[in-house]
Amino acid sequence: EKGMVGYVSVDFVAFRDSSGGERLWAVDLNVGMHDTVVSFHLFRFITGGNFNPITGTFHAEIEGEEGDGDDSEAASRSGSAVGSTSRGSNKGRREMGWGGERVYTVCDAVYHPNLASVQYNVFFNLCRLKGVHFDLQDKVGTAFILVDSFAGGVIGMLCVGKRHPDAMRMLGESLDFIQQQLGISRGHSDRYLPQGTFRSAIKEVKRRIDKAKALEA
Fold this sequence. Notes:
Layout: E1 8-16, E2 22-31, H1 35-47, E3 50-52, E4 57-60, H2 69-77, H3 90-96, E5 100-101, E6 103-111, H4 120-129, E7 134-135, E8 140-145, E9 154-161, H5 164-182, H6 198-216
Antiparallel strand pairs: 1-2, 3-4, 4-5, 6-9, 7-8, 8-9
């Protein structure tokens, strides 16, 4: 009716109400390719996995690692939505990509002024030496997003883990790695981060990690 064709993104806010129940509010509608869509497609590309619409989980195709039986059963119940498979069938899970569960967290763009003085080969060699990388076999780790050239001082990170706390921890470690190699940043970018700095990004990630640990305790 509105003549919209193509990608449409919906922004949700998830929270717990006063009684402790989970609530989900739709707060915005974005017409076009949004940052969250791009990051999800990158996540799906590097893991080679599939989203299970029945369980709301994402599973990577990993040799020797299979998903829970519930995922296979949910797939068989979903019919034409994801294809048919026999209940509990390993072959069915492999065909549909129900392997190890993976989650991700992403920081689309952080600004560090000292990035402009670093060459690509030097930076990524340091990443390999310090173990900050993406494991193509296990489908976990950190993938850097080259939002702009290093001359702009901006870089993004997408961290994939088997659980949400793992992915968030990797993001924190990646930010710490950049700060250790490039120094503490007190600058900001009017173009990329008008209301934040590199240090505020680290602070926010650590706050979320501490909150996740408190919920698990």
